[in-house]
Amino acid sequence: MQIKVYSTPTCPYCVQAKQYFKSRNIDFEDIDVSLDHEKAHEMIDLSGQMGVPVIKIDNDVIVGFDKAKIDQHLK
């Protein structure tokens, strides 16, 4: 399972999402879109959104920190 979290350092929901994955000992790639403009465009192409967090679990995209959707994709 491959997980990417597109985030910014000042986003509280991004911090919550990353803490949630860490609390469950789930590896993820943290992508800071405030520093990487290429990855920011990748995030927008994936989600159609400019807001963070955008979480990609394999080929599924979740916009925002939606624990229920995340858990559904982790099963």
UniProtKB/TrEMBL annotation:
Pfam families: Glutaredoxin (PF00462). Gene3D superfamilies: Glutaredoxin. One of its GO terms (biological process) is cell redox homeostasis. CDD domains: NrdH. One of its GO terms (molecular function) is electron transfer activity. Residues 3-62 form the Glutaredoxin domain. This is Glutaredoxin-like protein, YruB-family. It comes from Berkelbacteria bacterium GW2011_GWE1_39_12.
